[in-house]
Specification:
33% of the residues lie in helices and 23% in strands. By secondary structure, the protein is of the alpha+beta class. It has two domains: 253 residues, 3-Layer(bba) Sandwich (FAD/NAD(P)-binding domain); 130 residues, no CATH class. The longest helix is centred in the last third of the chain and has 22 residues.
Length: 396
């Protein structure tokens, strides 16, 4: 006999937890299902290096970071923007602080205290949890799950899918749900890597720079520009500065570095034209331009043979094209673009082909850079879908 409840939420990342929270708050019985042995694994992994909850900035600046999906997501993010995320975190008893760049973190930096507080609140609202329950589609009108105890059906009036994208499959976001929805005629956009590192086949001399941070640069790929930092790794370039322009690289734009973004080209040329005596070029670059070894190494890696004329060398320093082999594989990306297309959903994120089934989080076709935007988008879409599902339940 099938288990019965008002709502089933499948997926326990930030979007799924938020949707379950909204449905329970509206007084509905909620069953929260997770394929893995524990919940919110990707959120916990993100918190290991400091959980960046959101960005404390004006709405127009925040929404700009959602690119082509900005217009679609505007109503959802306007109702749950950076300020709202901070208020929500405090309501769970989490102390937060804002860094010099506007990024917001829990004072303890980790995600586990926030998750524990959130799960306790959901327990108090009556949300039931099931782990090791993998959704395998529908059996007639019921949801079908593969569980340690065998196949289990659940009858629910609404379903919220928050199944993630297709990166970090070991944590649960494996994209396996696409066949279930495409089989129902739901329009999907192909998955592509987002917030991904860059693959570079380094020359041998770069081995000494592996692990070195690259600071004080500007990165550009097409229309995307970043003043973020990067790291030279054995396989290429990593870090927030790279992630934020990876969409441009993915679309075929050249990646260009400005190694001295605070100086004009003519000023760089004038400094380079000063007599260098017996100093090596590397020492001249260090003394005249304060270029550190990491930036000098990049200049030599991608600019050799270096021009001798000061103006030409200045031009290269201000626009150094990175030779690379594309983005890291999709499963190594932090997130993905692609997923359930906007055209497949109504304004409440309900699937037009499957009434009563809503979608939220990274499984939707949108992307945003790290730095708080990605998590804010997941929370906002989860909240929106949960509220729309609750409204659907209240209708005759």
């Amino acid at each position: 006999m099938a288990e019965q409840c008002d709502a089933v939420v499948i997926g326990t990342g930030p979007a799924g937890l938020m949707a379950a929270d909204e449905l329970a708050q509206a007084g509905h019985s909620v069953l929260l299902c997770e394929a893995k042995p524990s919940v919110a694994r990707k959120l916990l992994m993100a918190g290991k290096s400091g959980l960046n909850l959101t960005k404390d900035e004006e709405f127009d600046e925040l929404i700009h970071n959602f690119g082509a999906a900005a217009k679609w997501l505007t109503p959802m993010l306007r109702e749950f923007d950076g300020a709202a995320v901070q208020t929500w975190a405090r309501s769970l008893g989490i102390e937060i602080f804002t860094g010099s760049t506007g990024r917001v973190f829990p004072k303890v930096m980790k995600s586990s205290p926030l998750l524990r507080a959130w799960l306790l609140e959901l327990d108090q609202k009556g949300v039931q949890r099931r782990t090791r329950w993998r959704w395998s589609g529908w059996d007639g009108g019921a949801l079908k799950f593969e569980t340690p105890g065998g196949s289990q059906n659940v009858d629910a009036s609404v379903t919220v899918l928050a199944l993630g994208g297709a990166s970090w499959s070991r944590l649960g976001s494996d994209g396996a749900w696409t066949s279930l929805l495409s089989g129902k005629g739901v329009e999907l956009a192909p998955f592509q890597p987002a917030n991904a590192g860059l693959l570079v086949n380094w020359s041998d001399h770069m081995a000494a720079r592996f692990g070195a941070p690259i600071k004080g640069i500007s990165l550009q790929a097409g229309e995307l520009v970043s003043r973020g930092e990067a790291v030279i790794s054995q396989r290429g370039l990593e870090g927030g500065g790279i992630y934020s322009i990876s969409a441009g690289v993915r679309e075929g734009a050249s990646l260009v570095l400005d190694l001295l973004p605070d100086l004009e080209e003519d000023e760089v040329a004038q400094r380079l034209a000063r007599p260098r005596g017996k100093a090596s070029l590397a020492n001249h670059l260090r003394k005249m331009l304060k270029l550190d070894p990491a930036r000098i190494a990049l200049l030599q890696e991608f600019g050799r043979p270096l021009p001798q004329a000061p103006q030409e060398l200045a031009r290269l320093i201000k626009a150094l094209t990175v030779k690379h082999s594309g983005l890291r594989p999709i499963d190594e990306a932090i997130s993905t673009a692609g997923g359930v297309a906007q055209t497949a959903l109504d304004d409440g994120l309900m699937l037009k082909k499957i009434p009563g089934v809503f979608c939220a989080g990274e499984m939707l076709d949108w992307e945003a850079p790290t730095g708080g935007y990605l998590l804010t988008g997941c929370l906002a879409t989860g909240r929106w879908a949960g509220r729309a599902a609750a409204q659907y339940l209240s209708e005759p």
